């Protein structure tokens, strides 16, 4: 809800975009936080000039009516009438200063209105301007003073056309209506400014939500890349290390290891493509290749066995295909991360992968490896994989536990809801 003028953006409501002349300069100054920078006062808009001229005309018209009544009043001398008209003319001219000094003008018109008939219109305009531009406490004080002086005014200068009581009542009502109109205008401006503030808050909240969505997307990419690529890259590391430490291996083994390295690199690229595709299009990537589920666990174990691992798979799920896709995918990632960690930190050990569960009971998956024989060279790792799996299981409504076990080995055990 904004309009741009040059290099400067002004938060003007969309309805008034391109129609700034319809808004008072005071409202534009509030809507544009940079308008009063360096003490610069807002310029009057076309609407301001029209309203100010109308107020001046109203003040002069009421002053002329007062001058006519003054001329027919036998209790007022000619010289006093000329002085009254002079004071009224100055008061009408001061109406053009009402935007700059609304409070000062309203205070100055209190004694002026008491001694001059022709200044009555200027006094009403000043009181109206005060109600528009200043808080209610100022309006209450000065409006109350004006109303309290009305009986005194008509006692000093009785109206030639109306009785005393009628004159007092009509003038009090006129002052009350003028103040009420000013308060209504002020309330409308306050409403417009509050809508501006709500629009700005909505824009800020939308920007924060977008930033949060971007951050969550980056975290999702990091988790997926770690879970998926760590498995493939570990296979590459194992076979590359075998070629490095056995340069005299038979040609068949070298060719087989090179083939596994090539295939693992191809699969790593394919998995990376799947990650980006999932983030863009849900559960499938741009090529339509589905994400792994529990049914793909056999292929994962077979791949690890081809890399030289000893893996025992104990599946007690009658039909893995009926497991919900999100639950199966999470279980697959847990098994994948467990095999990757076992390959890194406990090479040569026999890893046991167990899966069991049924609808209504949940799905339980565990990966266990015993303590490795001898010393194992430290392998780079940050532990973010298990942290990401714990978060993934929690988001799925389940739980995950991991840590050393009684036989010196390491285990990962998770439970996932299966409704």
UniProtKB/TrEMBL annotation:
It comes from the Bacteria. It catalyses: ATP + protein L-histidine = ADP + protein N-phospho-L-histidine. Residues 218-282 form the Signal transduction histidine kinase subgroup 3 dimerisation and phosphoacceptor domain. Pfam families: HisKA_3. CDD domains: HATPase_UhpB-NarQ-NarX-like. The chain crosses the membrane at residues 49-67, 105-131, 138-156, 162-185. GO terms for molecular function: ATP binding; phosphorelay sensor kinase activity; protein dimerization activity. One of its GO terms (cellular component) is membrane. Keywords: ATP-binding, Kinase, Membrane, Nucleotide-binding, Phosphoprotein, Transferase, Transmembrane, Transmembrane helix, Two-component regulatory system. It is an enzyme of class 2 (transferase). Its EC number is 2.7.13.3. PANTHER family: NITRATE/NITRITE SENSOR PROTEIN NARX-RELATED (PTHR24421), NITRATE_NITRITE SENSOR PROTEIN NARQ (PTHR24421:SF10). This is histidine kinase.
């Amino acid at each position: 809800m904004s309009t741009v003028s040059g290099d400067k953006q002004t938060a003007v409501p969309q309805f008034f975009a391109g129609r700034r002349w319809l808004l008072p300069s005071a409202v534009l100054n509030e809507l544009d936080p940079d308008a009063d920078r360096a003490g610069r006062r807002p310029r009057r808009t076309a609407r301001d000039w029209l309203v100010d001229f109308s107020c001046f005309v109203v003040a002069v018209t009421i002053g002329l009516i007062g001058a006519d009544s003054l001329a027919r009043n036998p209790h007022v001398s000619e010289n006093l009438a000329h002085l009254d008209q002079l004071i009224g003319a100055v008061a009408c001219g001061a109406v053009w200063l009402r935007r700059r000094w609304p409070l000062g003008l309203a205070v100055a018109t209190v004694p002026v209105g008491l001694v001059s008939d022709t200044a009555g219109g200027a006094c009403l305009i000043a009181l109206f301007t005060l109600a528009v531009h200043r808080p209610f406490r100022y309006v209450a004080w000065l409006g109350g003073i004006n109303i309290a002086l009305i009986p005194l005014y008509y006692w000093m200068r009785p109206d030639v056309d109306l009785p005393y009581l009628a004159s007092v009542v009509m003038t009090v009502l006129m002052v009350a209506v003028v103040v009420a109109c000013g308060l209504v205008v002020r309330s409308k401006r306050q409403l417009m400014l509050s809508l501006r503030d709500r629009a700005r808050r909505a824009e800020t909240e939308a920007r924060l939500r977008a930033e949060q969505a971007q951050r969550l997307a980056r975290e999702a990419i990091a988790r997926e890349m770690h879970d998926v690529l760590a498995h493939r890259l570990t296979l590459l590391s194992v076979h590359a290390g075998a070629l490095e430490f056995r340069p005299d291996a038979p040609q068949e083994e070298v060719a087989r290891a090179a083939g596994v390295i090539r295939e693992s690199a191809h699969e790593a690229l394919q998995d990376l493509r799947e990650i980006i595709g999932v983030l863009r299009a849900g559960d499938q990537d741009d090529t339509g290749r589905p994400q792994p589920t529990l049914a793909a666990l056999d292929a994962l174990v077979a791949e690890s066995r081809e890399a030289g691992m000893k893996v025992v798979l104990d599946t007690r799920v009658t039909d893995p295909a009926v497991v919900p896709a999100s639950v199966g995918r999470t279980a697959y990632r847990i098994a994948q991360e467990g095999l990757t960690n076992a390959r890194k930190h406990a090479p040569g050990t026999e890893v046991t992968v167990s899966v069991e569960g049924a609808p209504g009971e949940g799905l339980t998956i565990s990966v266990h490896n015993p303590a490795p024989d001898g010393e194992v060279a430290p392998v780079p790792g940050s532990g973010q994989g298990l942290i990401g799996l714990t978060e993934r299981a929690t988001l799925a409504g389940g739980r995950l536990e991991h840590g050393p076990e009684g036989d010196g080995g390491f285990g990962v055990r998770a439970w996932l809801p299966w409704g």
